[in-house]
Design goal:
The protein is an alpha+beta fold. The protein folds into two domains: about 35 residues, no CATH class; about 130 residues, Alpha-Beta Complex (Nucleoside Triphosphate Pyrophosphohydrolase), CATH 3.90.79.10. The protein has three helices and nine strands; from the N terminus they run E-E-E-E-E-E-H-E-E-E-H-H. The strands form three sheets. It has a four-stranded mixed sheet with strand order 6-4-8-7, sandwiched between helices. The chain has a three-stranded antiparallel sheet with strand order 1-2-3, with no helix packed on it. Strands 5-9 form a two-stranded antiparallel ribbon. The protein starts with 13 loop residues before the first strand and ends in a 6-residue tail after the last helix.
Length: about 170
């Protein structure tokens, strides 16, 4: 989101050259730049020792594809705390490990997605109201169920399949 008006005083912003950042919306009254904002989210591939992963059906996201556990980072929360919370909330399992994979820009929704692979011993899934279906499946099978190659979900599953298991 690019600011047009100051969220504190309401004055229309001007463009001002701010160092290496280039022209940035600036409030002359508050004497501060207002840099572009975007949402930060986590996405977690939940795995077990059998090489299975959890895929979810959330009809409000897609009725065609399955997806992975994901959610918005709340104020004062780290990405790791969000990942543990979202997995517990959406599918009712506790992770015993969480490994950072990377960050991905999701252009469709202007958001930064921080990707993790999480491991659990829990086999039983307890779904939240925002999850229509979830199941454990073989990771290779999951590639055919999520958004196509190039999507964050697909890339995360592909990374899991191609990474030697002792490193995860």
């Amino acid at each position: 989101m690019r600011f047009t008006y100051c969220p504190d005083c309401g004055k229309k912003l001007i463009e001002k050259l701010i160092g290496d950042e280039g022209n940035v919306p600036y409030c002359e009254d508050c004497k501060r730049p207002l840099f572009d904002m975007f949402s930060s989210c986590v996405i977690i591939l939940v795995t077990n020792d059998d090489g299975q992963v959890v895929v979810l059906r959330q009809n409000y996201i897609s009725t065609q594809y399955y997806n992975l556990v994901s959610g918005y980072i709340q104020p004062k929360e780290t990405a790791e705390e969000t990942a543990y919370r979202e997995v517990q909330e959406e599918i009712g399992v506790k992770l015993f490990s969480l490994d950072f994979v990377g960050t991905f820009w999701f252009d469709k929704k202007d958001m930064l997605m921080i990707a993790f692979i999480g491991k659990t011993d829990d086999k039983e899934l307890t779904l939240s109201g925002e999850v229509d279906e979830a199941k454990w499946i073989d990771a290779k099978q999951a590639l055919n169920m999520v958004h196509p190659k190039g999507s964050v979900s697909y890339t995360l599953i592909e990374h899991f399949i191609n990474t030697p298991k002792q490193k995860i």
